[in-house]
């Protein structure tokens, strides 16, 4: 079918294998500056229709008894915008209302203009121009249909994008509600346990402020990542940032790049804060010589991969196991284990506190 910008879209195909009809018609159309191509037989005509044309000029004797199966199939397969005009040169009284053969051709070809011979030269040119003008209107209809289809596609794409955006917004709102509830629950737990275990108001205030700031720093890391997760190295770096003033060389950090989900990021950040606070008060960061080793590794080949995380104090005062676990230890061992869906263990070795974590990376 004729494609847009096809140079063959307005040519006239001529099938008149007998007599001088083809040469006469071609000459008349050429004088009227109308492009025409003479076809030798029906297969040539069929190929010409496939390549593109504005109309086809046929003589009745060329098609009256011929096998028009190919032409008929081409006519039937025309797209909705197309209705190829055919000009059929007939003898006297050759119209379909008086000529059964012409009626058959009209049924097969569809859009047929019957032109009885003999005809005046201007009549042929006029009929050809009329057929081509109708064909141009069909091309215009095709352009409008294509524009409508393009517009429909863009509209569908825009509606789909809007729908995805609305669904994403609902998910974000649900996620935000979930995070707010979890954060408030965490803050409530921290506040209750801090106030319950503090010996004075000043101590309670300082501990609560420190823990809330640690939670805030962890939230900052996740917010920069749109709450899609965080790198463990950044979580650790931000968590120990308030304690680097005691000497950055007192922390040794080693481990591969690991991407953690928001839940794991918050849990590890809070655990490091509690461990660091305890180390400043009683452990390796309470004197001038102690330090902390923070390292981790990932076990691949299992589903899901597992994270082995370790906090190890060294060089500090001799450690004695406490008679009673404080809120910090319980926060780490219970809450961290629950949030990580793994195991957490704190050992109070004389050389320094060691906290180990084994958890799946989700």
Q: Which features characterize this protein?
A:
single chain; 362 residues; alpha/beta; Rossmann fold; Heat Shock Protein 90; 5-stranded parallel beta sheet; 5-stranded mixed beta sheet; 10 helices; 52% helix
Overview of the structural elements:
The strands form three sheets. The chain has a five-stranded parallel β-sheet with strand order 2-1-3-4-5, sandwiched between helices. The protein has a five-stranded mixed β-sheet with strand order 7-9-10-12-11, with helices on one face. Strands 6-8 form a two-stranded antiparallel sheet. Helix 7 packs antiparallel against helix 8 (232-240), helix 7 (201-224) packs antiparallel against helix 9 and helix 8 (232-240) packs parallel to helix 9. With 362 residues, the protein is an alpha/beta fold. The chain is rod-shaped and about 125 Å long. Strand 4, helix 5 (100-109) and strand 5 (112-116) form a beta-alpha-beta unit. It is built from ten helices and twelve strands. Residues 175-257 form the Signal transduction histidine kinase HWE region domain. GO terms for molecular function: ATP binding; protein histidine kinase activity. It catalyses: ATP + protein L-histidine = ADP + protein N-phospho-L-histidine. It comes from Methylobacterium soli.
């Amino acid at each position: 079918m004729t494609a847009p910008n096809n140079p063959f879209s307005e040519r006239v195909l001529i099938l008149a294998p007998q007599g001088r009809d083809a040469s006469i018609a071609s000459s008349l159309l050429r004088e009227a500056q109308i492009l025409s191509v003479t076809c030798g037989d029906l297969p040539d005509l069929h190929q010409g229709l496939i390549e593109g044309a504005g109309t086809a000029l046929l003589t009745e004797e060329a098609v009256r008894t011929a096998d028009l199966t190919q032409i008929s199939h081409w006519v039937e397969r025309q797209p909705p915008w197309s209705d190829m005009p055919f000009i059929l040169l007939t003898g006297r009284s050759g119209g379909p209302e008086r000529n059964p053969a012409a009626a058959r051709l009209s049924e097969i070809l569809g859009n047929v203009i019957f032109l009885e011979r003999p005809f005046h030269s201007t009549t042929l040119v006029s009929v050809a121009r009329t057929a081509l003008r109708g064909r141009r209107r069909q091309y215009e209809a095709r352009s409008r249909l294509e524009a409508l289809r393009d517009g429909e596609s863009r509209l569908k794409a825009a509606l789909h994008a809007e729908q995805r955006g609305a669904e994403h917004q609902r998910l974000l709102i649900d996620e935000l509600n979930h995070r707010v509830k979890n954060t408030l629950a965490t803050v409530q737990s921290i506040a209750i346990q801090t106030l319950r275990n503090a010996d004075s108001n000043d101590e309670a205030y300082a501990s609560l402020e420190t823990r809330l700031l640690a939670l805030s720093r962890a939230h900052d890391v996740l917010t920069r990542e749109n709450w899609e997760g965080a790198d463990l190295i950044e979580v650790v770096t931000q968590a120990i940032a308030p304690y680097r003033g005691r000497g950055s060389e007192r922390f040794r950090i080693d481990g591969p790049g690991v991407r953690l989900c928001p839940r794991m990021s918050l849990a590890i950040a809070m655990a490091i804060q509690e461990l660091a606070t305890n180390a400043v008060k009683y452990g390796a960061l309470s004197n001038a010589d102690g330090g902390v080793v923070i390292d981790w590794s990932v076990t691949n080949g299992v589903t899901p991969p597992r994270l082995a995380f370790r906090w190890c104090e060294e060089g500090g005062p001799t450690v004695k196991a406490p008679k009673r676990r404080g809120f910090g230890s319980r926060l780490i061992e219970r809450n961290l284990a629950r949030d990580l869906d793994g195991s957490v263990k704190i050992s109070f070795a004389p050389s320094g506190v060691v906290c180990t974590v084994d958890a799946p990376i989700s």
